[in-house]
């Protein structure tokens, strides 16, 4: 038996997640989202339908307060949403950023993919598009998000994500003006509790793959900020000839490295999913040793893996898997490095 075949026969089961298709894998312990996506695949639905359904479940349930309406308000107190969905068969993508008034961000992202020749719509124009497509306009503010915003104002608008600006003399709040003499300011680390993302990958029984994301972004973000979640290759990437990946964490840093795209390309060369995820994280660590982030990966055979960067308060990353190993979704974890 050739050495390479011996490796894949004997060694790979030790380093890969167990191989099985169909497959659903998503970031964090968002079990209900996993179950919703898995039910779609079990009923014969497509990988694309599974991703949309799973991410929408998180939006409806306001997973961890970081996905969907009523969470993580920006500096003006408004909750805005980012989302993306990608078809690994056709390489089509639909994405929305800074979406307002519409709860089903992943649904609008799919509408962008299926009803326009564009890839991404943002801001007020994305919301108008959604309304034209029949999505209901609703207030995304809740008592919880309003309280978060009120407490932030009482704390002189700290923390925030501004740098090299001069606030009002009386308080550290808007309006801000540029500071003429730029100062070196250490980048504010993203509070692990202030944001999250659902990133989801789904393979059907034929190996067709889709990936998607949904989030309401950073708490107290500068209005208009769009994170990594809706950026192709950053928040997620899928290719039915290679595999798929999805990321979560400090999007302002992670999007600069396109970690999901990198991980998929590494799997295309034959690298196992765990190693591909770790390499994608390592690329970012070289420049930002203290960034908060993680990534999930899965290849065409149904093997999967994950990796995360070790920082204070974030030593282990949890994610969900459904692939026939069990009647219920399985909670998996990986130690950060």
TrEMBL record:
EC number(s) from the headed UniProt entry: 3.5.1.26
Reaction catalysed by this enzyme: N(4)-(beta-N-acetyl-D-glucosaminyl)-L-asparagine + H2O = N-acetyl-beta-D-glucosaminylamine + L-aspartate + H(+)
Signal peptide: 1-19
GO CC terms: lysosome
Site (Cleavage): residue numbering on this chain: 196-197
Residues at the catalytic site: 197
One example of a Gene Ontology biological process annotation: proteolysis
Keyword Signal recorded: yes
Entry-linked InterPro entries: Ntn_hydrolases_N, Peptidase_T2
Binding site for substrate: 225-228, 248-251
PANTHER family tied to this protein: L-ASPARAGINASE, N(4)-(BETA-N-ACETYLGLUCOSAMINYL)-L-ASPARAGINASE
Family assignment from sequence similarity: Belongs to the Ntn-hydrolase family.
Protein name: N(4)-(Beta-N-acetylglucosaminyl)-L-asparaginase
